[in-house]
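Known limitations

Structure tokens in this collection are predictions and should be treated as such. Users comparing against experimental data should check residue numbering before alignment. To illustrate the layout, the record for MFS transporter is reproduced below. The input appears on top and the generated tokens appear beneath it.
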Amino acid sequence: MSENSTKGIWKVISASSMGTMIEWYDFYIFGSLAVVISTKFFPSDNPTAAFLSTLATFAAGFVVRPFGALFFGRLGDIIGRKYTFMATLLLMGGSTFLIGCVPSYETIGFFAPLLVLILRLLQGLALGGEYGGAATYVAEHAPAGQKGYWTSWIQTTATVGLFISLMVILATKNILSPEDFDTWGWRVPFWVSIAMVGVSYLIRKNMDESPVFAKAKKEGTTSTNPLKESFGNRYNLKFVLLALFGATMGQGVVWYTGQFYAMSFMKTVLNIDSSQVDKLLGIALLLGTPFFIVFGWLSDKIGRKYIMMGGMLLAILFYRPIYKMMYTTTDVAHKTEIIANTTQNTETSKDNTTNAELKITTTTKTYTDGTTYTKKETYASDKKEPISNSIIHINSHDEWILIFLVFIQVIFVTMVYGPIAAFLVEMFPTKIRYTSMSLPYHVGNGIFGGLLPAISTYFVTHSKAAGKADFYLDGLWYPIVIASISFVIGMIYIDNKNKTTHL
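Generated tokens:
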């Protein structure tokens, strides 16, 4: 590979990756702030229901991703890769910015969650068209035999986008007071995205069309009906279904378990301080991200199949032991309380919305290992049951244990996700590649993966209410079962050869 061609592919990757990273940042800001958003856009009298509603709204953005894949995939195969994913970038950026502008539930009532849901759906449509375009664009520029390596740089963007979203949130929290962040500061990360989108748009605007697509268009061999040729052709449909059920379905649940469910689990089940979770998750992501490149490169040498299937198998076998260790590491029932340091304060106030009398009791406990535990119970005169909120701040030793356990999950993610772009683009011919690869990717990630936080949190909540001792592990049955099905299908039907006649 010559120096000029290397320079050229790096320009392509930079333009594609930056835009894709920003779109993932936009998408994940919502999930990263789910706990805060649940108090702003939904009724506050039932925190659990509000949080589950927020996760459902978050999941709705994933559910519509396949429709975005069909709509924008068709455009990408007809008019070109470049202009299609420029459009998705602007749609995503505008929707994210507007979410940060929506008034709270207290101000406009049920219009708040409705507007957020609509904008969330637009985000999902945009992301449905973005990934396929970026991955196809890079793959069609990459040299033969190196597509796994070069497309793996695109694969890092989802994790980097999540990492940057966490860092922006953390920085905003550190700059503002807790009161200011809770009042309006949580909107800042949504607003920040519009500047990044503008920069990325200017970069992408100056890029050339994919040479493979440009050649096909010049020769008149592009598709006039990509949807019909992708899904109406039984031979091609077979590969679409294989890509979905044998790879992206399992990859999707592993991705969201190792990053998003891990974050949700630490915040809502382990009750660890939100800023502390963002910090330790950020460290784990930073340490794990280079392995996307490692496994993408390795897939060029030994094939895509066994790396992806290996990641699924490890996840299936180790998720329960990992999450059990996460729970026991931070469970205050296993720690020694310093009784003399325990404090309890009670304050009274009035709810401005309902005029109900409020009695707020705050109990703080410290433990010999440095862990602190704060429980706030709010008794409202118009409610039968108090609203309880617990926050744990773990010691540095426990922090590093959790960082390691999340890092291991990120390794599983990099194994299944690093080679997936090259795997998908190699399955389909140029004229219908954007459409054909986008749909299984976004059904696998958008439907099976995107629903994971809401489904798993529901399982945990239901099992906890039923009094199960290991309730915190029940949320893992969903990713374990889905990944197991995908593993079996992939092992039987996917060919490990990583060469293709389509590129």
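For this record: DSSP finds 21 helices and four strands in the chain. Strands lie at 343-350, 357-366, 372-380, 387-393. Please report discrepancies through the issue tracker.
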